[in-house]
Amino acid sequence: MCLSSRILNGKTRYFSTLRSSHTENKCILSVPVSSLSHHHLPILLSRATVSGLLLKLPLVHSVLRSLSLGPTPSLSFSFLSLLRRFANMTLDNYSLNIAISAAARVPSLDVGSQFHALSLKLSLASDSFVLNALINMYSSCNYPASARLVLDSAPRWASDVVSWNTIIAGYIRGGMPNKALQSFHQMAKEQVRLDEVTLLNVLVACARTGAMKVGSLCHALVVLNGFEINCYIGSSLVSMYAKCGMVEEARRVFNRMPERNVVCWTSMIAGCTQSGRFKEAVDLFRDMQIAGVKADDATIATVVSSCGQMGALDLGRYLHAYCDGHGLGKELSVKNSLIDMYSKCGDVNKAYQIFRGLTKRDVFTWTVMIMGFAMNGLCVEALDLFAQMEGEDKVMPNEVIFLGVLTACSHGGLVEQGYHHFHRMSKVYNLVPRIEHYGCMVDLLGRAKLLAEAEQFIKDMPVAPDVVVWRSLLFACRASGQVGLAEYAAERIEQLEPKRCGGHVLLSNVYATTSRWVDVNNVRTGMGNSRTSKKPGCSFIEVDGCIHEFFAGDESHFETEAICNTLFGINELLVAESFLILLPPTITKGQIAQVIVDFLEVAVSCVVFLKGFYPPRAFERRRYMNVVVQKAVHPQLAGYIHSATSGLLPFIQKGLVERVVVIFYDKAHVPVEKFVFKLAVNQSYGSKIEEASLEFALRAFLIKLAVAEPLTRTLPSDGSWEIAAYFRSLPPDGEKEAQLWIPTDTKQWMQPPQITPIKSMSCDPVKMQLYLEQPSRTEPRDPPTEP
DNA sequence: ATAGGGTTAG
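^ inputs. structure came back:
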């Protein structure tokens, strides 16, 4: 037995409570609270009773409190029953409050409702502490309606703000934010004075429901009441505004906050991610590190999601490594967003590797992996995975996962399977298909060219078709040239969305495939005359870990059309030669380098042609990969390009070449323009690749190059040009193959160059980007803003 | 006594 205060090092709450409430500084057991277990209780009781300590009520309370707040709150129940049985103690309101709070912490509805009965029996249920503890207990056990019942059946004077705050929080926790808002209104009607916690909770409810008006009202109330915009209130304000689609307002609140912790930063970053401002999200993440605030798993999850959505693989990989270096990323949400990011960036193997390494998987995990397989064309794998999930029977499918399953069916042309899963969704899992699911089905039927069936399906839908549904149908009409149906769908879109450009582009494409060029023109000019405008598309390119964001401007519209038409032509060629798709020849890793080298030779030739550096007769029109290209035929020119590109073969095979650059100089040998081919060949990639898919990916570069001239600058006369290769690491001096390559002393620009992307692609294991580097113009060019 | 941010989507 220990009765000396010296031994109590004050480390645990149990001992410190004893000390603060008791001047005698006496201890009844020298075991820290964290290692107390049930078998200590009788000892505790007997020693306390013997020494007469526990019969003093404040001490009973402090022991109970310590047990209730400790790692095993249920100990307080046992101790209480021992006290009642052996020390004849009756429960007062305070002990009851502690016991109920312990039941909330476990949480145990069973024990909690027993204490509820006990408080009614002892007429203590109207004590405001007991009342609030009961409300909290039902809320914590996810019985918000019961919590509400307790409040409503108590006398008015017994409840206060805390009661209402707890009710509101309980509805939010139970996934009923609308009920939370209702309670807030009721609370106002009963003229209960709100406090900071009320507003904080209501802001969360607004964020969940998108109740923008109530949210702004809360903001006003924060200011009117003179509440400080601290980290708590600030975070929920930022989150509320972002979720209600008012990112600008969120940013304004964020910028004005006097103090910011991880949660504030994460709210703002997540706000950007959720509203498609991916680059801003990444920039904020950098600012956060500069501000010296450490990221946690929530931060990483949302930044990784941004990377995935803009295809920034390098940055995504950096974040992955950052996690490992900072002990982060252990939470499932981070793993999920990494799987999603790798899939979206085209590295399904890496995604699946992470997926397989997980011991725990939630709905998100399965959804992102199924989606990842589906979007990378591995449709059977996606369906197999869904079957595996159902077999494991640990995770309950939700609506979103079925979108992934249906997308897989749609992309894989698996009509039967699509119907099967669509029906199972409601029959087996009691999930009501939403408009998105109907959209998937229309897409599925349309892609399978079952247009009549798709049309009938739309007619039979229990929900009104939206623009996406009509667009899927309209898109499907293109392949079958069904002009009449296409026009009907376009009309529906026009009705639903008169201000947007709607189905015009798609409709004009249907006309184009049926060679109705007059109609194509009518639609196009109609678009220009009326106020319909296309929302600018946005793309990203990642250069040395730096993200560049681009909006499709009106100027580039003409080229877009040319590219689309060329692509349609290619599509038709592919359809005509569909045996290629049925029996795809595969090539090995060694052959990949050869394909790339051949491609580079042609591409460099096209670049030089495009710049008009030599007279056109130095080139010849040739067919390469089914597109028309300009191949150099002048002996010296062709010889230079051939030897330079083919000399790269051994280094590309070893994965040593990072960039192949065509540089144009002025007469002072200062670069005027660079065409950069950034290259990555994954060396660890094991399996073979389809030659057709690699060719298809590379061909897109040649098509883009053919129309890239307007993006480039006029060359000064008497300049020069050369082919340069940037190596990841330099080959040893003695190597024979390396002797062709000499270090170049290209002058550098003073300012970072202006980057213009031309094309990027990812076709495992090859990734390639083509972009222009030009010296910066003095005045920055703003991207066109959205209408 | 009650309290903030995060991952999937046709």
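The radius of gyration of chain A is 34 Å. The longest helix of chain A spans residues 589-610.
thumbs up if we can close this ticket
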